[in-house]
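Fold it.
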Amino acid sequence: MPDELAGRQVVITGARGGLGGAVVEAFVAAGATCHLPERRAPDGAARPGVRVVAGVDLTDEASVEAFYGGLPGLWASVHLAGGFAAGPLLGTRLADLRGQLDLNLVTAFLCCREAARRMGSGGGRIVNVTSRAALVPAGGTIAYTVAKGALTTLTVALGEELRGQGILVNAVAPSTIDTPANRAAMPAADHSRWARPADIARVILWLASPANALSWGAVVPVYG
């Protein structure tokens, strides 16, 4: 969708992750200016359409408030930041659960809230990234599954709450994504069946675009 987002400001969290690069490229190609909150300073030179803001802790309320409060305006906020941890119930400590909730739920909650505040009555789009594990739990990743399940519920609830303001909140739910890290971790798997980052990015781009005028509270499977 060339120029679909021309002149529009978009936040993308977790841009350094395996999916993040493809999402940033898709939004820049669509004409958006992408604001990337990061804990540390970026590697390499700045490039057109991308503004990296270092020193942002997405699990800290004041840090997220300051980041969003400094934006020039906002059309969309896309939340890729998160983390994965495997482990059965009896091997999962409370600290493990809280860690997964911080990474996968708290970061998205704070960003959703501040994005909605920044958008106000002008409308906009919010896209979260949950997981197939939240929709089809398989066991063995209890803390991760619970955290992503909470994120899924957050998405549906905010979709209902914010649609009256013209803010459409949706999510995508990937299964295994075809990234170098996942290939290294599972070398014997059939990688051809995994979802490619560029394909997932196109779904996210549509959900975050003005072309999406009807979908809210949806959790879209992107399983490959």
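The beta strands are 9-13, 33-37, 50-53, 76-79, 124-129, 167-174, 219-222.
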